[in-house]
Design brief:
Blueprint (H helix, E strand, L loop, with lengths): L4 H23 L6 H16 L18 H16 L1 H6 L1 H27 L2 H12 L2 H6 L6 H20 L4 H16 L5 H19 L4 H25 L2 H8 L3 H13 L7 E4 L2 E4 L7 H9 L2 H15 L12 H21 L15 H17 L5 H23 L31 H11 L2 H5 L3 E4 L2 H12 L15 E5 L2 E2 L2 E2 L16 E4 L2 E5 L6 E2 H4 L2 E9 L2 E9 L2
Parallel strand pairs: 3-4
Antiparallel strand pairs: 1-2, 4-11, 5-9, 6-8, 7-8, 10-11
Helix pairs in contact: 1-5, 1-6, 2-3, 3-5, 5-6, 5-8, 6-17, 8-9, 8-10, 9-11, 10-16, 15-17, 15-18, 16-17, 17-18, 19-21
């Protein structure tokens, strides 16, 4: 009975955390990228149902996105549209988030089933629990239609590909489904191929060893099953990607493919400047200590403690489960490859990195799985080892401290900073915090409460970051149809802000007090108006760029996430 108690508590905890995740997902606003993906899904959906007749699928830089998940998300949203057109139009955030949190929940199920198949149910339970307790993964479950979905594809691919390699039963089912999830993942990001590379190599090595005396069966796997997998995957990749179909028809596939890979690895349309613990850095020259800094300053201490504990137990003090689970050592190394390979490759290729761990959310569950081993050992040895009792007590203290801050951040959990900032408000100027603008929804609703419709209509509003998402809320909630950007910014008397780092241009006519910060060689003309380029020596954030009086603030624990500010014109 006592042995099953932690598992029971774990199940209840997972259900409670999933409930909170669903509530947070349906409460939080659209992230900066989501409206782009909504439109991308709309035009790809029209292209698909017209059997390629719809020609309005090109906008901005959407040629770089295969668009499969965007299309599926939009298509599922059409169910709600059939029920109520007006609800759909005014609640796109609700519609998109209910789809995304559903896929995120399925990804946790996939993690549990894969880990159970690989190790056992207790390890699977702890890995799932620790993943949900990671504030970055948890905070993105409802609103991240890229990085979370990459993990969804990855974990289910791992589950079915592992079954394909080790099980003879259901061979073609596992082949079809593992191929399906390759296509699904690549349909989100083409670099998914890089992520699954070590999995495929590991599987091929296993098959060569397993069937080295059965060349007929091995040949069948390699030369019959592989083409089937490629065909299924390619079909899904190009299904909702008209740009790729065009390039194939024009015999320009190779050049277009290389362009996609290049732009995916180093996305030049993203942020130019990042901010880590008060230090600015150029994204194109990301410091090699990037991941280490994020772990030190942002990862919960209790999870770091468990992670290091697992490595200690594996390399120094042999785990008891090494003797209980077949090929445990090989499986342990395999999980570490899944977690570390993308990070090492990113560092090796000097990939542009920003938004903390967002681009590598798919690695978090595997680090959680590694940490789960030490948690399992602590529970198993609790009665008989004073070291386990002390260690578990430390973990519980660290967890309690973490969970207090975690709950207070609801629903903006991805803004978590660990207790390297003892007081959360101390981190205010050291990080970008709500870099994805998910708090814009709450901000606009608070603006609506404070001002009359007539007052709002007379406002001239500009913004710093999150144009499309913000405009959606301004239109739907406030009736404002224009944001004063570019040369019109000089006319604005209010600004909506998140604390995004920026290397954009600012107008010295509005902010003459900032001129002394700028290298006068960086002058340029934009539509006959003189701007000064903050390049490369002026690095700042939106909050500092626009001086004025804060009228409405959305904050947590003394840290502003988004602000409505009256400008000092």
């Amino acid at each position: 009975m006592a042995k099953n108690k932690p598992s029971l508590i774990g199940i209840i905890s997972i259900l409670l955390l999933l409930s909170l995740a669903w509530w947070s997902s349906l409460t939080i606003g659209l992230s900066t990228d989501e409206y782009f993906h909504h439109i991308n899904g709309l035009v790809r959906y029209k292209y698909l149902i017209s059997f390629g007749e719809f020609e309005g699928y090109q906008f901005r830089n959407n040629q770089f996105y295969p668009g499969l998940y965007d299309t599926i998300s939009y298509a599922l949203g059409q169910i709600i549209l059939l029920i109520s057109k007006s609800f759909y139009a005014n609640n796109i955030d609700f519609v998109m988030h209910i789809v995304n949190i559903s896929f995120s929940t399925l990804s946790i199920l996939g993690l549990f089933l894969f880990t159970k198949k690989l190790f056992n149910s207790n390890i699977a339970l702890y890995a799932s629990l620790l993943t949900l307790l990671n504030p970055f993964f948890f905070g993105h479950m409802g609103m991240n239609s890229k990085d979370i979905i990459v993990f969804f594809s990855l974990i289910w691919f791992c589950y079915y590909f592992y079954s394909y390699c080790v099980e003879d039963e259901g061979l073609y089912k596992n082949l079809f489904l593992s191929s399906f999830f390759i296509g699904f993942g690549c349909g989100v990001r083409l670099t998914f191929l890089v992520v699954i590379f070590p999995v495929i190599i590991s599987g091929l090595v296993f098959l060569f060893i397993k069937y080295k005396s059965n060349l007929k069966h091995l040949t069948k796997r390699l030369f019959i099953h592989s083409p089937i997998a490629i065909i299924i995957s390619l079909f899904l990749i190009i299904l909702c990607w008209p740009h790729m179909i065009e390039e194939i028809q024009n015999d320009n596939f190779v050049n277009f493919f290389s362009l996609i890979v290049k732009n995916t690895i180093n996305w030049n349309d993203g942020p130019k400047i990042g901010l880590i613990n008060g230090e600015y850095y150029e994204v194109f020259n990301t410091p090699k200590t990037y991941f280490l800094d994020v772990i030190i300053y942002r990862l919960p201490f209790f999870s770091t403690f468990l992670l290091l504990g697992s490595y200690f137990l594996f390399f120094i003090n042999k785990m008891s489960i090494q003797n209980e689970i077949s090929s445990f050592n090989l499986k342990f190394y395999f999980v570490n490859i899944l977690a570390l390979f993308p990070i090492f490759l990113a560092l090796l290729l000097s990939v542009n990195l920003y938004d903390n761990l967002r681009l590598f959310l798919f690695t978090i569950p595997f680090f959680s799985l590694i940490a789960a081993f030490s948690l399992d050992q602590l529970f198993n040895n609790f009665k008989n080892s004073y070291k386990s009792k002390i260690s578990l007590s430390i973990i519980l203290i660290l967890f309690s401290i973490f969970f207090y801050r975690f709950i207070l951040l609801t629903p903006y959990h991805y803004n978590y900073i660990n207790y390297s900032s003892i007081f959360y408000e101390d981190s205010k100027d050291n990080w970008e915090h709500d870099y994805w603008g998910a708090s814009y929804k709450d901000l606009v609703l608070e603006i609506k409460k404070k001002y009359s419709i007539e007052e709002i209509q007379n406002m001239k509003i500009t913004n710093c970051s999150g144009d499309e998402t913000l405009l959606y809320y301004l239109i739907r909630k406030l009736g404002i149809k224009k944001i004063y950007r570019g040369e019109k910014e000089v006319e604005a008397n209010y600004v909506v802000l998140i604390n995004r780092t920026t290397l954009d241009i600012f107008n010295p006519k509005i902010y003459p007090n900032l001129e002394h910060l700028v290298d006068r060689k960086g002058i340029m003309k934009v539509k006959d108006m003189e701007y000064i380029v903050r390049y490369p020596n002026v690095k700042t954030t939106c909050f500092k760029q626009y001086p004025g009086t804060d009228e409405v603030i959305i904050s947590r624990n003394g840290v502003p996430f988004s602000v409505f500010r009256k400008l000092n014109n």
